[in-house]
Design a protein that fits this description.
Largest sheet: 7 strands, mixed
Radius of gyration: 27 Å
CATH topology of the largest domain: Rossmann fold
Bound molecules: thiamine diphosphate
Distance between the termini: 62 Å
Low-confidence stretches: none
CATH superfamily of the largest domain: Thiamin diphosphate (ThDP)-binding fold, Pyr/PP domains
CATH architecture of the largest domain: 3-Layer(aba) Sandwich
Number of domains: 3
Shape: globular
Number of helices: 25
Mean pLDDT: 92
């Protein structure tokens, strides 16, 4: 069945295929990819969309000497297959298996580990400059989606590369989609030029005339050049210093090979505009491109997800849903509440808000830095902005939080979803650094709810805050353990005692409160009396509760789903040191100071000592 691809284990093998057979190769890869992702889950739509482009690139380039810089890298599955990883596709995104993103530690054909959008052009300019200084010959290509092109970093790099005019090729993969439909003026511009009937008609007519009068061709070319400035899609890029080519059909692999050869032979700073269809060749992914972006294992015939396929076993609702519900409720009460997303309305739970309050919901594109500065300005004018961004992507916005919110003495709520271990997305997406990078912002409030009640209360407090107020919550479902407990209201910086005890205190935040309560039960059976404190806030700390805990128990354990350096435990240590209580025995249970690869969240929590059993074992050891 796989006549071609079973013999392709490196780009050199691909080059042995006759040009006219490349459509067959594409069809085989497409079928293999769909069948494979149906079993493992993963980013489906993007790789289907760039499938022909990837084949054409490897047909023309000499990887790994020539470099392909992937933007985000979620579209690199076919690249992985061509570069010798086809047989490991069944391990995709599992512990010890293939990463869902390019990784130099996996293959010499992946120049960088990537996962955050907007890096490819910047990396390509860097590689091109280094090549020229070292008198190298290699080609450098950046493959960027129209979504990733909305990132500020992409613009910064475009600007720099256009100025340097280095020999490199930027391929704009235009499918009009980010995860959701792409937004922004550039997207509108690209769309307008593609559908501009005047341009298409005039270009067609001039080309016909050219055929008839070959001797006038040069002259006509000049007038075509002039006309270009009126109609050609790439004027914007040409003005920035690029030689623009396109738009071309991104699914015609034979034609793409020819075009890539020609463009690369120019050895100049070029931009090739390629039109693709996200999810191409998979019925449900084409029909609903947003759904087809990232999928869990699914039934190939129906596209329906296979039950029980999610890695998180549901408890109650997800933290994302709790945020979504709470925000809607509070926004109904207060018209000043507005929401901001950086191209992820569905992932961050703003979908319903966007539908109900379209004029109060702002999708700014993949522009997390702008999202926060923009929100800071809205807050200055009396609105109450909530910026919903994954913890890992908020890393981009540190200066905006510092300079454009905190320093301005304005209050913006930062809703940090996926704060903690994220599972299959792995190292590039772990949300385990936010306490450390936000904790240094003067005056900021950092909270972590354990359930939906606390989520709503924190959001309410955040909306009234005149300083930045971050709420971090994990990629998980809320524990049913708290359902029966009384719901006590609280103020900023106020924790609660879940269980009293006399041997050891567990100071826990957010997702770790459930684990602490379970560890309490395990230790009770062993005759150990454990006090469990749900701290709720990392900044400001509930100092009274900490001091009270020291009085009651001789030992303190801090628990957090965050790296150990600069995290919640560090904040507790700092506080004790300030109070000259440095002699108190404090053990910090947290994630190690390292990048953590892909794997299931539950398994990793256990591996790093944060499951109830491992917490109980650590305490027993210390006792
Ligand atoms: C800085 C950052 N913000 C958000 C994301 C989440 N994200 C992953 S892919 C994607 C859409 C990318 O769209 P595009 O570049 O057009 O590629 P396509 O998926 O359409 O092929 C987004 C928003 C990210 N990876 N990085």
């Amino acid at each position: 069945m796989t006549k071609w691809i079973q013999n392709i284990n490196c780009p050199e093998d691909l080059k042995k295929v006759p040009l006219e057979s490349l459509p067959e190769v594409a069809a085989e890869y497409r079928q293999f990819l769909i069948e494979s992702i149906a079993k493992t889950g993963g980013h489906l739509g993007a790789s289907l969309g760039t499938l022909e482009l990837t084949i054409a690139l490897h047909y023309v380039l000499n990887s790994p000497e020539d470099k392909i810089c992937w933007d985000v890298g979620h579209q690199a599955y076919v690249h992985k297959m061509i570069t010798g990883r086809r047989e490991r596709m069944s391990t995709m995104r599992q512990a010890g298996g293939l990463s869902g993103f390019p990784s130099p530690w996996e293959s010499c054909h992946d120049p960088f580990i990537v996962g955050h959008a907007g890096t490819a052009i910047s990396q390509a300019v860097g590689l091109a400059c280094a090549r020229d200084l070292k008198r190298g010959q290699e080609k450098v290509v950046a493959l960027v989606g129209d979504g990733a092109m909305t990132a500020g970093l992409s613009f910064e790099a475009l600007n720099h590369a256009g100025h340097l005019k280095k020999s490199m090729l930027v391929i704009l993969n235009d499918n009009e989609m980010s995860i959701a439909r792409n937004v922004g003026a550039i997207s509108r511009y690209l769309n307008k030029v593609l559908t501009n009937p005047i341009y298409n008609r005039v270009r067609g007519e001039v080309e016909r005339q050219l055929q008839k009068f070959p001797r006038l061709r040069r002259l006509a070319n000049i007038s075509l050049e002039g006309m270009k400035h009126l109609f050609v899609p790439g004027v914007l890029f040409e003005e920035l210093g690029y030689r623009y080519f396109g738009p071309v059909d991104g699914h015609n692999v034979v034609q793409l090979v020819g075009i890539l050869k020609d463009v690369l032979a120019l050895n100049s700073c070029c931009l090739l505009h390629v039109i693709t269809k996200k999810g191409k060749g998979c019925e449900f992914a084409e029909r609903d491109e947003e759904k087809g972006h990232g999928v869990v294992p699914f039934d190939i015939k129906t596209g329906e997800k296979i039950k029980g396929a999610r890695e998180d076993v549901p408890h109650g609702i997800s933290f994302t849903q709790a945020f979504s519900d709470a925000l809607l409720k509070l926004a109904r009460r207060d018209p000043a509440v507005v929401a901001v997303t950086a191209a992820m309305p569905t992932g961050t739970g703003l979908h319903d808000f966007q539908k109900i309050f379209p004029e109060r919901c702002f999708d700014v594109g993949i522009a997390e830095q702008h999202a926060v500065t923009f929100a800071g300005a809205m807050a200055k004018r009396g609105l109450k902005p909530v910026v919903a961004v994954y913890s890992t992507f908020m890393q981009r916005s540190h200066d905006s939080v510092m300079h454009d919110v905190a320093l301005q003495r304005t209050g913006v709520v930062l809703a940090l979803d996926r704060a903690g271990l994220v599972g299959a997305d792995g190292a590039t997406h772990q949300g385990i650094f936010d306490i450390a990078y936000l904790g240094s912002v003067p005056g900021i409030i950092l909270g972590a709810p354990k359930d939906e009640f606390e989520m709503e209360k924190m959001l309410e407090l955040g909306l009234e805050s005149s300083v930045p107020f971050a709420i971090r919550y994990p990629r998980a479902h809320i524990s049913k353990l708290f359902d029966e407990l009384p719901k006590k209201s609280f103020q900023t910086g106020e924790g609660e005692v879940m269980f009293d005890g006399s041997d050891v205190t567990l100071l826990a935040i957010g997702s770790m409160v459930e684990a602490a309560c379970k560890a309490h039960t395990l230790l009770k059976d062993k005759g150990v009396s454990v006090r469990v404190v749900n701290m709720r806030f990392i900044k400001p700390l509930d100092e009274i509760l900490i001091l009270e805990s020291i009085e009651k128990t001789k030992m303190i354990f801090t628990l957090e789903e965050h790296v150990i350096t600069g995290g919640f435990g560090s904040k507790v240590l700092e506080f004790l040191e300030e109070r000259r209580l440095g002699q108190i025995l404090v053990r910090r249970l947290a994630l190690p100071d390292e990048f953590i690869e892909h794997g299931s969240r539950e398994t990793q929590l256990d591996h790093f000592g944060l499951s109830p059993e491992k917490i109980a074992a650590s305490i027993m050891k210390e006792l």
